[in-house]
Specification:
The chain is an all-alpha fold. It is built from 22 helices and two strands. Helix 5 runs antiparallel to helix 19.
Length: 489
């Protein structure tokens, strides 16, 4: 039997898989804490500069700054205001730069050595570097630790998503992928609550990072992906994991034998070229990758641009962060409904949500600055966040279905790399309002609309077969004739 038949035998989403998936999706809460950390600990309280003689040194400049708000952050500790204010955004960008490098390195690495070792080692190191952030003696150490935390966070984010897909049957992929994104959104809201209860930035950072210790201890019990083992030709180990799943699910399996043909395919030297190079040289994968990279870039730019700007909005910074997290919650059942309808599917749903997000951001540009309708702008921004969250979630699910198992992590890694480029730019986009108040939302609008249109070039994957190898992606069937290959990508 093949892998899908095996999952139907042992249980596509039995009690054991529910437990394993729960551990991984709850880890997203910790990852959300790390992603949103700079929003609160890098927040700038009210301050004024005393009228004194022009200082002759940076030390005298620090002494002139007086904070009028009782708030503790890296800004108040290291006086990151005026000419030093850029360091707050720089720390946020360094985190996303780490995510980018982590996607490049850890994605293909998990395709080579396995999902489980990459996930566990990345999570352990992220916790270690997270404590370095909490006890950093200087801004330089703080910034370096944020880069390293981002490196590990980016490495395991893709692996987490792939694992929750590969632990269950294909019919549950959309649900498990959505749960991953949903827990990340809930994590943003929980971080706002944690920040409200714990105000000193070092205490907040320590408390947020301590959740990672708990999730690491729970993750040690997770098995290797049986799909990855199968694609690597380790059929015996794949059968062992599947039998263990069946036993924990309460199913009696006496004759679980996977096809050995995969081992022969993988052992062929010409067919082991499943790294990043295949994403460039393979004609089908090349076009898909280019389109998906831009879609992910735009999703990230709009998503994180709106979210990171929450702390700068009027009103309580904690309430704003919580709202930008909770507004995502209805996006996930919404996208789950549409992506499983034959008249919508993955492609149309993702493109539509991107266009709606861009349109909502564009509408904020039409509101005059002098009307005082801050609430209307906020509501439109929240609507844009809701729509781009739905599109982002679909992009994860859709991308995993567009790539064969043998190269899935590499494909997701490259797309996430492009996503992190958008994340690196995102902290600086809200600050572009110094040019004009409409510039940030104009950038978000153009990004969403263009990505939505470009996404229509991709093929639909709803109810289609899942490719395990590159041969299955371009194998000679009656539905993949040479002429059709030139137009269907």
């Amino acid at each position: 039997m093949d892998v899908e038949e095996a999952f139907r035998t042992v249980g596509e989403f039995g009690p054991y898989q529910k437990q394993a998936v729960a551990i991984i999706v709850l880890t997203q809460v910790y990852m959300a804490f790390q992603s949103m950390l700079i929003v609160l600990i890098g927040s700038t309280p009210e301050y004024h500069v005393e009228q004194q003689q022009v200082p002759s040194s940076s030390q005298e400049l620090v002494q002139r700054v007086v904070f009028t708000e009782d708030f503790d952050s890296i800004v108040t500790e290291w006086f990151l205001v005026k000419q030093q204010a850029y360091k707050v955004n720089l720390a946020g960008s360094l985190f996303f730069a780490g995510l980018l490098v982590g996607n490049i390195v850890f994605g293909p690495l998990s395709d080579r050595i396995g999902r489980r070792p990459v996930y566990l080692s990345g999570l352990f190191l992220e916790v270690v570097f997270g404590y370095v952030t909490a006890f950093a003696p200087s801004y330089e150490v703080f910034a370096a630790s944020r880069l390293l935390v981002g490196l590990m966070n980016g490495g395991i984010s893709v692996v987490c998503f792939v694992l929750v897909q590969e632990y269950v049957g294909k019919s549950y992929w959309a649900m498990t992928g959505t749960l991953t994104s949903l827990c990340f959104a809930i994590g943003i809201a929980l971080f706002a609550a944690l920040g409200y209860l714990i105000r000193p930035w070092r205490n907040l950072t320590t408390a947020a990072n301590s959740f990672g210790v708990l999730f690491f201890l729970l993750s040690v019990t997770l098995p290797e992906s049986p799909r990855w083992l199968y694609c690597q030709g380790q059929t015996d180990r794949a059968e062992q994991v599947l039998r263990h799943m069946a036993m924990r699910n309460g199913n009696t399996v006496t004759n679980l034998m996977l096809q050995r043909v995969v081992a022969a395919k993988v052992s062929s030297p010409t067919k082991r070229q499943t790294g990043l190079l295949q994403l460039v040289v393979h004609p089908v994968l090349r076009i898909r990758t280019v389109v998906l990279m831009y879609v992910w870039y735009s999703c990230s730019l709009v998503y994180y641009g709106l979210t990171l700007g929450a702390g700068d909005s009027s009103g309580s910074r904690y309430m704003n962060v919580a709202m930008y997290g909770l507004v995502e919650v209805p996006a996930y059942p919404l996208c789950m409904y549409f992506i499983n309808k034959h008249w919508a599917g993955r492609r149309k749903s993702m493109s539509s949500f991107l266009c709606l997000s861009g349109s909502a951001c564009f509408c904020t540009v039409l509101i005059p600055d002098n009307t005082g309708s801050v609430l209307s702008v906020t509501l439109l921004a929240l609507l844009g966040k809701l729509m781009v969250s739905a599109a982002f979630n679909i992009a994860y699910i859709y991308t995993s279905e567009l790539y064969p198992t043998v190269i899935r992590n590499a494909g997701l890694g490259v797309c996430s790399m492009s996503c992190r480029v958008g994340g690196i730019m995102a902290p600086f986009v809200p600050s572009m309002r110094v040019l004009h108040s409409s510039v940030p939302f104009t950038v978000f609008s153009l990004s969403g609309l263009s990505a939505g249109c470009l996404g229509l070039m991709l093929p639909e994957t709803l109810n289609g077969p899942t490719a395990e190898t590159l041969d299955e992606l371009t194998g000679p069937t009656e539905f993949k004739k040479k002429k059709k290959k030139k137009t269907e990508y």
